[in-house]
Structures are given as structure tokens and as C-alpha cells.
Amino acid sequence: MTRRRLTILLHWSVLLLALMMVKGGTSDTYIRWAFVLAGGLWLGMTALCGMLCKPGPKLQGPLRNAYPWMHRGMYALLTLAVTTNAAALLHFAPHDTGWIPLLLLLAGAAFHGLFHFWRHNVLYDGALRAMTPRFVHKIL
């Protein structure tokens, strides 16, 4: 599996796991562990190999300059959510410690998704194709 495919898999897995955690409050232990492991793997890959994101040639001006920093902010929110959930699972913190960071991550993810939806549909730069599995490309 290539690094790009693994990143795409982790990107959507972390989102789905976070949504499953919200459905049940701070959810079942196995879902939280899956979130912590997937998020930790993704953060570890990013720390070792760097980010895969690129602003693309059609993104200009201040948004182009802010683009890598917006992604670093998303990684910071992911780090916060993963570490607080791991601390709760390892009994270093109360059971519901990961709730607020998880909601912050999902709020950031909503803005992140809207930004890339805007890029894809207004700038026509194929932003959504970069992070969606191939079977979704026909729809986009």
C-alpha cells in the first residue's frame, strides 16, 4: 500500500470513528481505541514523512499562504483529540476527558471539508479527488 493510499484510508477512517464516538457520547472502548490507533498512526506518518497536502496552482493570495497552516491546525486538533482519548483509556484522566477535543476536531473538520468543497467546485482544482478513494471519483 502506498503512503498516499494509507493516508486516504486513515483520513476517512478517523472521520468515521470520530462520528461513531459522537453518536455514543464518548463511545465504547473498542471504538475509542481504534480512533486512538488510527489517529496515532496518521500523526506518526506525518511526523516522520511530512504532510502530503499541496495548495494547488489555482489557490492564490492569502489562502495559498495559509493553506499549510490550516492543515497544521487540523493536525494539532487531531493530536489533542488522540492524546486526550488515549489518556482517558489508560485511566490517566476521567472517562469523558476526550469529549471536548473530539467536538473541536469535528468542528475543524467541518470547516476543512467546506473549504475543500469550495476549492473543488469554485476553483475547479480537483481538491476532493486528492483525498477521496478512486471509486468516488466518478461522482465528483
Q: What are the main properties of this structure?
A:
single chain, 140 residues, mainly alpha, 5 helices, 72% helix, 0% strand
How would you describe what is shown here?
The relative contact order is 0.13. The chain starts with a helix and ends in a 9-residue tail after the last helix. 72% of the residues lie in helices and 0% in strands. The chain is mainly alpha-helical and 140 residues long. The protein is globular, with a radius of gyration of 16 Å.
TL;DR of this structure?
With 140 residues, the chain is an all-alpha fold. The protein has helices at 3-23, 29-49, 61-89, 99-123, 127-131.
- Helix vs. strand class: mainly alpha
Mean pLDDT: 90
H-E string: HHHHH
Number of distinct beta strands? 0
Radius of gyration: 16 Å
Largest sheet data: none
Name the helicity range. over 70%
The portion of residues forming beta strands comes to under 5%
Please count the helical segments: 5
Ends apart, CA distance between termini:
24 Å
Q: Which stretches are low in confidence, meaning pLDDT under 50 for 5 or more residues running?
A: none
Coarse shape: globular
Task: Break the fold down into its secondary structure elements and pairings.
Elements: H1 3-23, H2 29-49, H3 61-89, H4 99-123, H5 127-131
Helix pairs in contact: 1-2, 1-4, 2-3, 3-4
